């Protein structure tokens, strides 16, 4: 597949109507130029448009083409590492603020869905499923931890209660986050783009940025156009490539794969996940799944380090699905696809600025639906001169990958092997 080519997926096939947008073919001026129309870029742009800023988004492909339009749709709270890890990495004040913001992303999404009437099949409820006693203990710890930050929506589930949520023998228990939920991810992105445009924002598609010249104004170039802007927001995440080498050296694109079954019919679908929550297990290399609005099972899992596209995704994911739901043995798979998220060494996100007026956020390490919306808020506030949130995120360490790009894949795969083994042994 060529870079930025269309990605056939269940989401693309069930996307709400959206206009095709022009590519940039002239020289323009704006206050803010956002690079990338995933959730990070769209969320930032929408916050800024709401605050009255003139904003242009440059997108290399189409709105939601990246991870934002292909993900599992699990709208879960907190970060890829939990708040106790965050607290060990920064000051007490920053940790407190990051603790509050860990539960903000879902609120932002819900507010937007309601305010702009975004049709994205939003459903309440997310289950974390434990496969062994160590994971159950971690969920008990998580409940106390989140409560210490004022969040009281977690409910622990024993095996029987868990089976009322997920009809499988695999888990020993789990927890239900009543404040989380799931969405049709591409339709959320398309809805946010439409909301942004309704406020006068402009999106150019098929307009990959090839160069950023820092300065006041910054000069952002595509193959056929130029944007001069007071501020630039870099939101290309795992698809940014080497546009900014200082961001590439401290992160690694990784692929994760998803399948969508044929429609199962309401009865069979509800027999699998009776209350329509989304589910993720507690393994390091986790399985994540949920039902679509038309009663398909959407099942994702696994990680390909270095983001090479696997040849046969169904062969990779179907056995995982059948391990959870053996009753789906004869069910057909209608769609498979892969997408890239951006891993950091700490698995914590990286946000900050380059010079005085180029801001970035990247690397939520696979846990980004809610975080990217928080990031949008933090970046938009920073551009308005309120840097408290951005500074708290920027205080988290941004480690380079050991060995640079050449060795980061084997190092990370080795780390994942170790954590995967621990999960398999339940230690
Ligand atoms: C298969 C999959 C499943 C996932 N499941 C979940 C889940 O269930 N829950 C969860 O919380 N997270 C999940 N994630 C992670 C989550 O989707 C991402 O963290 C999040 O969408 C990242 O959003 P983003 O806007 O930062 O990046 P993206 O959505 O990847 O957007 C970046 C955009 O920037 C554009 N771009 C890149 N370079 C340039 C350039 N030079 N010029 C112009 N545009 C450029 C790209 O074309 C792309 O559209 C999943 C990720 C994947 C891949």
TrEMBL record:
Record bears the keyword Oxidoreductase: yes
User: Mind listing the UniProt keywords for this protein, alphabetically?
Assistant: Oxidoreductase
Q: Name one Pfam family in it.
A: DAO
* Keyword set includes Oxidoreductase: yes
Provide a GO CC annotation, any one.
Answer: cytoplasm
Q: Which parts pass through the membrane?
A: none
Offer an example of a GO molecular function term for this protein.
oxidoreductase activity
Which InterPro entries is this protein grouped with? FAD-dep_OxRdtase, FAD/NAD-bd_sf
Tell me which SUPFAM superfamilies the record gives: FAD/NAD(P)-binding domain
Q: Where is the FAD dependent oxidoreductase domain?
A: 32-380
Question: Which N-terminal residues, if any, form the signal peptide?
Answer: none
The protein here is known as Gamma-glutamylputrescine oxidase
Organism, per UniProt?
Answer: Marinospirillum alkaliphilum DSM 21637
